[in-house]
Amino acid sequence: MGTFVRIAWRNMWRNPRRSGLVVAAMAVGLWGLIFSLGFMDGMSRQMIDNTVDSHMGHLQVHNADYQARVKGFNMFHYQLDKYISDPGPVEQAIDASEYVVAWSPRIITTGLATNAQKAAGVAIVGIDPKRESEVTNIARSLVNGRYIEPASENTIFIGEALAKKLGIDVGSKIVLMAQDIHRDKAMAAFRVVGTYKTVSSTFDKSFVYISIGAAQKMLGMAELVNEFVILVDDPSKKLEVAKASVAQKLDKTKYSVMTWREIWPLLVRIVEMSNIFTYVFFILIFIAMAFGIANAVLMAVFERIREFGIMKALGAKPSQVFLLVAIESICLGIVGVATGILIGWATVYYFGRQGVNLAVFSAVLEQMGLGSVIYTSTNVSFFIWGGLIALVTAFLSSLWPASKAAKLVPVDAIRHV
Amino acid sequence: MAIIELEKMTKVYGADGVETHALRGIDLTIGEGEFTAIAGPSGSGKTTMLNIIGALDVPTSGKVVVVGQDLSAMSPSDLSILRLNNLGFIFQAYNLVPVLTALENVEFVMLLQRVPREERRERARKMLEEVGLGELINKRPNEMSGGQQQRVAVARAMVSGPKMILADEPTANLDSETGSDLLNLMRKLNEEKETTFLFSTHDKMVMDYSRRLVRLVDGRIISDEVRE
């Protein structure tokens, strides 16, 4: 076996240009695969992370009648009247779960933000500023002024994009209008203490933050809340377990616990669809690769008909000749895969740090909850799978040339010039 | 004792309805330890005959018994085992594996025979020394002269201790001096190890070196003389 590998390896370098071309084709194919996987995965993760980090959290608890499911992009709608009437037990249930890292209560409703000149439709979010800062990245997205404090009843934290839209700045006064819990008109004045900026300008134009106390007072909700947002430990693996651990302590008829996947199924669909595109792309790459390898190996076999004839005349079995050709192809595959993984890794590593700047498409990307810079993800499984599939492709595409070599009749093959 | 027995052996090549009679009824017996040349002009059927004896080709009719085995009754894989264990081959030229060194080429047959690595190496080295190439064991074929390559081929054919060596025009691509060196070497091996040698040739020198000369014309034996 060792000698077969040696023969195959040396044969591979007999025609360095041809082997080099095959290696290059494989490397480029694999590189494309690793990069596109890294890009797609990075994009999906960013899309999810941005949404989860800025607002959604991993789990949410609502009143059982609350329709939490999001139907489109950022098309939230909130039902103030489907509130959690007794937050105490819910808080205890969440606290009791070992999977929960942080949680925060909210009051959230839609309304209008106005100043003297302009008005804009907004989502009014009443938060516990400290808890909210542990659950979402809004506090960390501060650009001007400061974040709101728990006790304050008339300060508001808004997106920079909204400030621009309304033509206001830190220190300006705005009035929020909404329906209160009794469907009466509610209204309160706030002073802008700070502005934030997330990757999504759509989000920044929509969400305004006031303290939960101010929201309860404005909307007539006393001690009530209508949403709990929860962050869990290792959500990629433990999301469902965490959900179950919270849900089992709560009365199902009164409360619903949902994961971000359930709240925003469209996001999950988008990720799934992009995966399907990627897989189709791979299949095409590997088919092209297979033809390239088969062609090169077939050429190599035709060039050496005499040599295989002599090997067979000396007593080499067809299976041994077959093996020799297959090993040669796998050697090519290994070099191609190693090269492809190396440049693939270098590329995703680089773009994982620097990001791929897609500023041209920023409007579309923002709609999808993405920034204009996509960071590729370096997932070890991409390298392993990509490499394995490429090797299998190399082996499969050698089957035909190898069986041709194995079937050579020695007496004819020796006479072959 | 006979190592080759041919009875009424014929070989007909047929293509597009045109039949070519390469061998037209050969009766021949060759004993163990002989050093025999089959001579004849090109197209006389000598290579065909050698291929059939070497279990590389099958006769159209007649009986072929080589090292006591009737080849007509054997499957291709049995034939390859017979070749591997009983026969050594030397071809006209360019018959070494180009990517292997002299030593590795000589080891190749033993590799197919599954001889353990150390033993393989040792026997190949000894055999190369015997054919006078002890210095060149790590050279590849393209780094050696034609005569040296043919010596490696002899070493490869001999190393597994076959009962018989079949050589198809072994001197055809060599100059006369190198050719005679090679023939001396083969005769020495024939005498020392009692290996049977069977040549096909149209080289006068090979005929002179042989102890028995079988002449072939148009697929028939026209003369068979023992010379000393």
Structural commentary:
The complex is a heterodimer of chains A (417) and B (228). Chain A is of the alpha+beta class. Helix content of chain A is 55%, strand content 18%. In chain A, the strands form 2 sheets. A 6-stranded mixed beta barrel of chain A has the order 2-3-8-5-7-6, surrounded by 4 helices. In chain A, strands 11-12 form a two-stranded antiparallel ribbon. In chain A, strand 6 and strand 7 (185-196) form a beta hairpin. In chain A, helix 1 (2-12) packs across helix 12 (318-354) and helix 2 runs antiparallel to helix 14. The two termini of chain A are 29 Å apart. The mean pLDDT of chain A is 87. Chain B has 228 residues and is α/β, with parallel strands linked by helices. Chain B has one domain (2-226): P-loop containing nucleotide triphosphate hydrolases (Rossmann fold, 3-Layer(aba) Sandwich). Chain B has helices spanning 46-53, 76-86, 102-112, 117-130, 146-159, 176-193, 204-209; strands at residues 2-15, 18-31, 35-39, 61-66, 69-70, 87-90, 164-168, 196-201, 212-217, 220-226. In chain B, helix 5 runs parallel beside helix 6 (176-193). Chain B is globular and about 50 Å long. The interface between A and B is medium-sized, with 22 and 27 residues.
